[in-house]
Amino acid sequence: MLLHIIARGKIARSPEGELLDRYAKRITWPFRHSELPDVGGKVPPPVHTPVREVLLDERGKLMSSEEFAALLGRWRDEGVRECRFLIGAADGHGDEARAQADHLLCFGRMTWPHLMVRSMLAEQLWRATAILAGHPYHRSG
User: Fold this and answer.
1) Where S-adenosyl-L-methionine is bound, by residue (predicted)?
2) Tens-digit pLDDT profile for residues 66-124
3) Which of 64, 89, 71 lies closest to 7, judged by CA?
4) Do 94 and 51 touch, CB atoms closer than 8 A?
5) Which of 52, 102, 56 is nearest to 82 (CA)?
6) CA 14 to chain centroid
7) If you write DSSP's letter for every residue of 1-32 in order, what string do you get?
């Protein structure tokens, strides 16, 4: 299953970009990162179908790493071929986008800059795939 982060704004050369790259290289599943302008631009069509869309949103569900891994594992096992993670600009996502999403995910009640959210999401994707593979990196308990 392709894990695809689609984010508004440019990460460019930055410490957050380096961290995103570091975790992206560790993810053993297919991975893609796409950027959109802060305003305008169209979300690219899915590379594969069936697809699930996850919006990173303050109204989303708080999940443990194990719950997140289980969700990805369930979608993979159901035949989902692409999971898209959409990160909005400063104003987040509109009501229509939230209503159409398959899942709303929250990284806590605090507001995070989109650059940090990308690197945090990449780490959680790596952690989730490590959990599903039984890798010792993740220690639950």
Assistant:
1) 56, 88, 107-112
2) 999 999 999 999 999 999 999 998 788 889 999 999 999 999 988 888 889 999 999 99
3) 89
4) no
5) 52
6) 19
7) -EEEEEEES---SSHHHHHHHHHHHH--S-EE
**49 in a labelled binding site:** no
Fold of 2-133: Alpha/beta knot (3.40.1280)
What single letter denotes the amino acid at residue 48? H
Give the number of other Cβ atoms within 10 Å of residue 24's Cβ.
19
- The tokens describing 55, both together, are 């919006």
Contact 101, 54 (CB under 8 A): yes
- Neighbour count for residue 40 (Cβ, 10 Å): 7
- CA 87 – CA 118 distance, rounded (Å): 8
Helix (H) or strand (E) holding 6: strand 2-8
**Known binder of ligand: residue 107?**
yes
Which residues make beta-bridge pairs with 87? 7, 56
20 annotated as belonging to a binding site for a ligand: no
88 is in an annotated binding site: yes
108 is in an annotated binding site: yes
* Tens-digit pLDDT profile for residues 47-70: 899 999 999 998 999 999 999 999
The structure tokens 């949103």 sit at 57
Amino acid at 11: I
